[in-house]
From TrEMBL:
UniProt key word Membrane: no
Upper classification of the organism: Bacteria, Pseudomonadati, Bacteroidota, Flavobacteriia, Flavobacteriales
Broadest EC class assigned to this enzyme: ligase
CDD domains: AsxRS_core, EcAsnRS_like_N
Family: Belongs to the class-II aminoacyl-tRNA synthetase family.
Cell compartment(s), UniProt: Cytoplasm
Organism: Flavobacterium restrictum
Keywords (A to Z) from UniProt: Aminoacyl-tRNA synthetase, ATP-binding, Cytoplasm, Ligase, Nucleotide-binding, Protein biosynthesis
Cross-referenced Pfam families: tRNA-synt_2, tRNA_anti-codon
Name of the protein this chain belongs to: Asparagine--tRNA ligase
Gene Ontology terms describing biological process: asparaginyl-tRNA aminoacylation
Sections of the chain in a coiled coil: none
Subunit-level organization: Homodimer.
Domain Aminoacyl-transfer RNA synthetases class-II family profile: 131-467
Gene Ontology CC terms: cytoplasm
Length: 477
């Protein structure tokens, strides 16, 4: 008999005479009640074992973490807490789990301990919920763009370009590191490398994405990106997933409209599909916040916070206005910020972004028109000659969740800018072709998928919303 998923059994509308379920034991109470979980839902199904007619050796093997198969009937539960339970007629132990050694005990574990056991933490309620929400969110991303007729593009993972010009790249090579070939000048001879040139893991698919937008109109990427920035924070990963839409003929305002509509859609979709998991995560967050001083607790519960984002427009504020607010705010005057804002042109740190979102505006904020010299080379220069058509979306508890811009479509201006920044035109000859042949206004943005998952799940460390996090000094699993 084929087994039925626990989620289907729990949502059954009738009792069923004969079913089979397979899963892992969460707890086994009174030698009689198994809480069985198969990952299809947060909820366990209660399996009532006929302990009088089950050999002792078998009962002893029903331990937390063991894989079991139960055959029996789905009956109305006599106990409180569930509508249906399984009256077990036949129980088979599929895989034993030594109760003494199994790390996921039925008790509260620290998030740090769970990170060290990332291969098993997904067997806990919280991580099961987070990973199901993550899966639904990624489907929502595709659903949004596909409905709107965007073309999904797989941009390369190995590339010769540094899209962000920030030099935070992992190199890719097949050269022997202990015996590197040298050229006449004594430098490493990358002509002898696998690709005959210097290559790295991509930091962003944007530049390749732009070439596709200039033919297909509206495209999006959704893939892994890699950054060798040594920031050991709760918001940074060395390997993260990014969603990058790019749209021909969109200006910066259209770009903001798209980003806002997109984020609201995926959150709404996920709230509809994952209500059990999100309710559980809301409770988890509430519990976690109890250990914090009152002033640091969030004013809203998780679901209220998500609804707030759906129901309110994001506040659009220029960089210049934001600097005025920050310069005059109390933490700046009292020197509470680590980086004091003195003048226009300062790069905003996450403390400033969070002040704007959490204390000043108290809603998601889109900052736009940043100083040119703190942003990437490809952004459209404004008529003032000193700001670019950039936008960052800032979220409460997260800080920057989206970075995007209208692109510099003018060949001469772009080349000028690249020269000033020392970006090699030869390397990006193909990118410049988009400006040589049929150039047009276009815009796009990148959304850090894990930062979105953080926001939606109410988790606070980015290491807890990706299956196997890669961070400085950590590439286990
Ligand atoms: O702001 P970023 O660097 O922008 C780009 O890469 C552009 N090429 C996007 C575009 O216009 N197509 O990165 C975009 C987003 C950030 O806002 C942030 O959410 C996320 O990617 N991000 C990270 N997420 C996790 N770990 C990191 N180290 C991240 N760096 C950026
Ligand atoms: Mg950015």
């Amino acid at each position: 008999m084929r087994h039925t998923r626990v989620s289907d059994l729990l949502s059954s509308t009738t009792t069923l005479p004969e079913i089979n379920a397979k899963g892992w034991v969460r707890t086994f109470r009174n030698n009689q009640f198994i809480a069985l979980n198969d990952g299809s839902t947060l909820n366990n199904i209660q399996c009532v074992v006929d302990f009088e007619n089950t050999p002792d050796e078998t009962l002893k093997r029903i331990t937390t973490g063991a894989a079991v198969s139960v055959t029996g009937s789905l009956v109305e539960s006599k106990g409180a807490g569930q509508k249906y339970e399984i009256q077990v007629a036949k129980l088979e132990i599929l895989g034993d789990s030594d109760a003494e050694k199994f790390p996921m005990q039925p008790k509260k574990h620290s998030l740090e301990f769970l990170r060290e056991n990332a291969h098993l933490r997904v067997r806990t309620n919280a991580f099961g919920a987070i990973m199901r929400v993550r899966s639904v969110l990624s489907f929502a991303v595709h659903s949004y763009f596909q409905q709107k007729g965007f073309v999904y593009v797989n941009t390369p993972i190995i590339t010769g370009a540094d899209a962000e010009g920030a030099g935070e790249m992992f190199q890719v090579t097949s050269l022997p590191l202990d015996n590197l070939p040298k050229n006449e000048e004594g430098n490493i001879d990358y002509k002898k490398d696998f690709f005959g040139k210097h290559t790295n893991l991509t930091v962003s698919g944007q530049l390749e994405g732009e070439t596709f937008a200039m033919a297909l109109g509206q495209i999006y990427t959704f893939g892994p990106t890699f950054r060798a920035e040594n920031s050991n924070t709760s918001r940074h990963l060395a390997e993260f997933w990014m969603i990058e839409p790019e749209v021909a003929f969109n200006d910066l305002n259209d770009n903001m409209d798209l980003a806002e509509d997109f984020i609201q859609y995926v959150i709404k979709y996920t709230m509809e599909k994952c209500s059990d998991d999100l309710k559980f995560l809301e409770g988890r967050l509430l519990e976690e916040e109890k250990s914090k001083p009152q002033a640091e607790r969030s004013e809203m519960g998780l679901l209220e916070k998500l609804n707030f984002v759906l129901e309110n427009n994001f506040k659009r504020v220029s960089y210049t206005e934001a600097i005025d607010i920050l310069r005059d705010c109390t933490p700046n005057k009292k020197k509470k910020f680590q980086y004091i804002i003195n003048e226009w042109g300062a790069d905003l740190q996450s403390e400033h972004e969070r002040y704007l979102v959490e204390k000043h505006f108290k809603c998601p904020v889109i900052l736009f028109d940043y100083p040119a010299n703190i942003k990437a080379f490809y952004m459209r220069l404004n008529e003032d000659g000193k700001t670019v058509r950039a936008m960052d979306i800032l979220f409460p508890g997260i800080g920057e969740i989206v970075g995007g811009s209208q692109r510099e479509e003018r060949f001469d201006v772009l080349v000028e800018k690249m020269k000033a920044l020392g970006i090699d035109e030869e390397v990006l000859w193909w990118y410049l072709d988009t400006r040589r042949f049929g150039s047009a206004v276009h815009s796009g943005f990148g959304l850090g998928f894990e930062r979105l998952v953080l926001f939606v799940t109410g988790m606070t460390n980015i290491r807890d919303v990706i299956p196997f996090p890669r961070t400085p000094m950590n590439a286990e699993f």
